[in-house]
């Protein structure tokens, strides 16, 4: 790879045919893909000396930073077909200020300088890319796990605003560059094979363990040009299989509350002098906040993934002044998930508890007294699959009209589509239970929550099928974009750049849910499900890396099952096969269209002052029209189906359409001064925007199908939302003290406005009546001897005294003799409350930070080190002592990287440690407005390569060698939400370069 590659890429938009920058100090221009070109100091058309390897990659990345306009960092491939990391997100995390979110054990989405994934724009060869995910249906965050790294030649991270850069990236604009044949004349080719072993696959129950522990990966890239250099063709492809697992424990339903220590409402702990108050140790004081868990869940997931990537590129240069490029990019990511779990729901009856000191008290233990032992020990299974495809077809023509004027046209159509890839849908759960749970206590004092259950008797109460959920989801995003760029060299050291663009984005998110709400107490009788369908397992072995999992008090027995076999049996014995498959239609269908037009003007010039100064001043105008159409189901009833479970009845859906629009002028100014030939100072001011997530824009009120005694939840978007606008200031000092080494210190500030504040309002949509506190309920309290929170007593009384009367349909008693059935709210009953989440432009935020970078190569020894640290701070933090909705910046955290290398003719070794401090990941948990904090996480990765000869290389890679766990908590560390154990990943590869 040319040492000038990175410096040549400093300006990917506009991107021109390969040539030298004639303006002193200006960044070199690029080929039509925005990549490999000559050094500013090289004669036109002449490449500098070609070197490869880790050191060359670091040197090229350094040159990118040094020669860029504005604030740019990046990663450059070591050689054609050989990127430094197997995952692009894991490469990006090596850059100062960039942190990643991990999914299924690898990097997926990025946060830059404390700005979350939805506000970072991803480009492919300078083109805006769509994104889709069934895990995050309405988001804009790009999932880098969909792209293989082999065909990528560079990653460029643009941290400061520039007029010529497309809008959408507040934290950064990230440009992914792929290989172009005319940039590297002649034949270039390589092929690689790899065996992948993820140790986490060894730590799963047998029913969900993938069959193969060692999986293959094969990749290849081929590039060639005609003898006269006019034609070029490039082909790259890769296929990877990966099998893995991860195990989670926590409170996925969230924590009820927060409550004040002197409250006495449903769900609170008993007050002094009331029954059960003697069971509380270190009671939260009046005014202290505390929360109680909704449920406790242990789940184990086995994952199989197949990822296919390919790109085909044709280039034709009929003259030296004109280069055309036609390219097609394809990726497919298929994921199959099988899951088993053990869980217990709390119904906020008589309890025992032990608390830390306030003012925010965390539970050291929490338990509910259940007698007789007839509650459910729930054990569920899931078996679903998804497929995501990305397709991009693009054309580029770059024309050097004369020595002063250059023109470029670029057009593309790109789609991202996520669909179910299983007859069982894109998500599902088949519940089973043994109705033998007595008093249940959870010890939260360690990292791992330890659940103890009294009275469990699987012989007396064998497993049986209970509730079920089958979901089908669909997401598609399509972008059609046309961009034109021009530049005109003026005077001796100036250049005028300008361009126009039109972008049409269509996003669709649709889903349907098939849920049996009335069977959580048992779909049929237990004898319908032979014991041979269930397989006994021990729990603690799957969490052996988490502190506290060896506690002998842990309830250690659970049962797994073959999902497909048990689903088929349930469909047969119930006689309702259609209810054990997903629906074929979509009951919710949300579509958003954004049509944007933009224009930019930018003037670059050099100033021959006491110190050489290079400046760029510009402005970008952006106008966007938003149309949101939503098909949402109309709610018709609110039905009590189980102790604390209510079903929202849905009627025929209707479409609604809402619109919005906005426009912005976005100025930018960059200046860098050559303090010395080896030292630079930089300053940048610019304004950028980041568009709202699609769930924030989509109109139509959607109620969640499952409600509780206190009411239900729902959401409604607002297509009139303005984008978040950021005013950015950057300062930096950079010292390039030798060819391969530098040190830099940077400071940044962002003033952000128009954040969409997420708030919940209590509403009564559709006027749904609830049986809670209705006539039947009140009579059960008055005549049935039921206390207000005893749902079992109230339901038994209603079914035994009002069966057949309006709204009451009694089913068979369960194994414990409790009545089952449905109780529908009646016209004279109260109206059900729903917490409706919506959005409006109401929030402002300020953040600031420091970035420190150092890279040092130890002469000719082969050793080198690269390190960086980023400090980010904002006064807008979550107040854990405050009740209710509040706004705080998510993703804000310090981060650091330390990379050491050694390289000679035979060996190349890299050890990389990445660390991210604790950060707020969400302001809502499963129960309402409560914080989610991801605890500090550090990971060590290692790669060792051996060059057998100039063509053949052997490689070993190890990811997460320290076998780290991931933990998320709420208002205190004892308010555990999730703790996750996975495992290291190892790869052995061979690569042959032709």
Automatic annotation (TrEMBL):
Residues 25-45 are annotated as: Disordered. Keywords: Cell outer membrane, Membrane, Receptor, Signal, TonB box. Residues 36-45 have a biased composition (Polar residues). It is found in: Cell outer membrane. Residues 25-34 have a biased composition (Low complexity). InterPro entries: Beta-barrel_TonB, Beta-barrel_TonB_sf, Plug_dom, Plug_dom_sf, TonB_rcpt_bac. This is TonB-dependent receptor.
């Amino acid at each position: 790879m040319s040492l000038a590659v990175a410096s040549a890429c400093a300006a990917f938009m506009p991107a021109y045919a390969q040539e030298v920058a004639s303006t002193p100090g200006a960044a070199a221009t690029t080929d039509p893909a925005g990549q490999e070109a000559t050094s500013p100091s090289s004669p036109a058309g002449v490449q500098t000396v070609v070197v490869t390897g880790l050191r060359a990659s670091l040197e090229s990345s350094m040159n990118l930073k040094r020669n860029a306009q504005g604030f740019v960092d990046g990663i450059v491939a070591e050689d054609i077909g050989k990127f430094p990391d197997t995952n692009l997100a894991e490469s990006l995390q090596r850059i100062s200020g960039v942190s990643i979110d991990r999914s299924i054990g690898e990097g997926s989405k990025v946060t830059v300088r404390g700005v979350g994934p939805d506000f970072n724009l991803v480009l492919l060869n300078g083109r805006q890319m769509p994104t889709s995910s069934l895990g995050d249906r309405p988001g804009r965050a790009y999932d880098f796990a969909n792209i293989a790294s082999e065909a990528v030649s560079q990653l460029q991270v643009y941290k400061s605003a520039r007029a010529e850069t497309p809008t959408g990236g507040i934290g950064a604009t990230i440009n992914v560059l792929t290989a172009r044949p005319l940039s590297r004349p002649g034949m270039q080719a390589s092929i690689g094979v790899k065996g992948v072993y993820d140790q986490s696959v060894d730590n799963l129950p047998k029913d969900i363990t993938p069959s193969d522990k060692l999986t293959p990966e094969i990749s290849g890239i081929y590039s060639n040009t005609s003898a006269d250099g006019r034609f070029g063709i490039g082909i790259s492809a890769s296929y990877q299989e990966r099998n893995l697992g991860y195990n989670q424990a926590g409170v996925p339903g969230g924590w009820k509350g927060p409550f004040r220590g002197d409250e006495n409402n449903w769900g609170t702990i008993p007050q002094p002098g009331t029954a059960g108050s003697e069971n509380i140790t270190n009671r939260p004081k009046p005014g202290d906040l505390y929360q109680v868990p909704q449920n406790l869940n242990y789940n184990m997931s086995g994952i199989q993934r197949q990822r296919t990537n390919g790109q085909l590129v044709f280039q034709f240069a009929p003259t030296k002044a004109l280069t055309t490029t036609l390219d097609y990019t394809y990726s497919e990511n298929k994921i199959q998930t099988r899951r088993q779990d053990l869980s217990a729901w709390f119904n906020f009856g008589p309890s025992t508890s032990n608390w830390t000191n306030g003012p925010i008290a965390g539970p050291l233990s929490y338990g509910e007294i259940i007698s007789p032992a007839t509650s459910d020990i729930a054990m569920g299974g899931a078996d679903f699959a998804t497929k995501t495809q990305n397709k991009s077809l693009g054309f580029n023509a770059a024309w050097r009209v004369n020595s002063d004027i250059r023109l470029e046209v670029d057009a593309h159509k790109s789609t991202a589509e996520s669909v179910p890839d299983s007859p069982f849908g894109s998500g599902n759960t088949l519940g089973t239970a043994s109705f033998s749970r007595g008093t249940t206590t959870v010890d939260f004092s360690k990292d791992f929550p330890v659940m103890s259950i009294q009275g469990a008797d699987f012989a007396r109460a064998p497993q049986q099928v209970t509730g079920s959920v089958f979901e089908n989801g669909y997401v598609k995003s399509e972008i059609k974009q046309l961009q034109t760029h021009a530049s005109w060299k003026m005077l001796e050291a100036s250049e005028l750049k300008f361009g126009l663009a039109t972008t049409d984005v269509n996003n669709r998110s649709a889903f349907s849910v098939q849920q049996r709400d009335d069977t959580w107490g048992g779909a049929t009788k237990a004898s319908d499900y032979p014991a041979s369908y269930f397989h006994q397992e021990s729990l603690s072995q799957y969490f052996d890396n988490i502190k506290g999992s060896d506690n002998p008090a842990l309830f250690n027995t659970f049962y797994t099952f073959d999902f497909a076999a048990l689903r088929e049996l349930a469909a047969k014995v119930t006689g309702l096969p259609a209810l054990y498959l997903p629906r074929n239609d979509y009951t919710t269908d949300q579509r958003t269209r954004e049509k944007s037009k933009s224009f930019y003007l930018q003037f670059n010039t050099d100033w021959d002052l006491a110190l050489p100064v290079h400046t760029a001043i510009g402005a970008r105008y952006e106008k966007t029209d938003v149309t949101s159409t939503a098909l949402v189901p109309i709610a018709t009833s609110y039905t009590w189906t189980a102790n604390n479970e209510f079903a929202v009845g849905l009627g025929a859906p209707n479409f609604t359409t809402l619109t919005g629009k906005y426009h912005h002028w976005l100025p930018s100014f960059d200046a860098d001064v050559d303090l010395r030939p080896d030292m630079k100072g930089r300053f940048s001011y610019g304004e950028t925007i980041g568009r709202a997530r699609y769930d924030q824009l989509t109109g139509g009120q959607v109620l969640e199908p499952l409600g509780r005694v206190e009411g239900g939840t729902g959401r409604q978007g607002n297509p009139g939302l303005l984008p978040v606008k950021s005013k950015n200031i950057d300062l930096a000092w950079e010292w390039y003290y030798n060819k391969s080494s530098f040190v830099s210190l940077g400071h940044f500030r962002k003033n952000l406005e128009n954040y969409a504040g997420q708030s919940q309002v209590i509403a009564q949509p559709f006027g749904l009546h609830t049986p809670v506190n209705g006539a039947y309920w009140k009579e059960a309290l008055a005549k049935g001897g039921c206390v207000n929170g005893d749902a079992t007593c109230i339901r038994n009384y209603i079914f035994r005294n009002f069966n057949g009367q309006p709204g009451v349909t009694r089913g068979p008693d369960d194994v414990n003799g409790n009545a089952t059935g449905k109780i529908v709210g009646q016209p004279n009953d109260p109206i059900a409350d729903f917490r409706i989440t919506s959005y409006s432009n109401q929030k402002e935020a300020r953040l600031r930070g420091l970035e420190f970078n150092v890279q040092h190569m130890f002469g000719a020894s082969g050793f080198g080190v690269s390190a960086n640290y980023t400090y980010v701070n904002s006064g807008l933090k979550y107040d854990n002592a405050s009740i209710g909705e509040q706004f705080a910046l998510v993703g804000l955290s310090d981060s650091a990287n330390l990379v050491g290398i050694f390289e000679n003719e035979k060996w190349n070794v890299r050890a990389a440690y990445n660390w991210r401090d604790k950060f707020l990941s969400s302001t809502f948990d499963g129960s309402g407005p409560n914080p989610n904090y991801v605890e500090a996480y550090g990971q060590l990765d290692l790669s060792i390569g051996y060059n057998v000869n100039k063509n053949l290389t052997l490689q070993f890679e190890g990811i997460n060698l320290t076998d780290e766990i991931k933990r998320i908590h709420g208002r205190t560390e004892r308010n555990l939400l999730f703790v996750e154990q996975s495992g290291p990943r190892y790869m052995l590869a061979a690569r042959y370069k032709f």
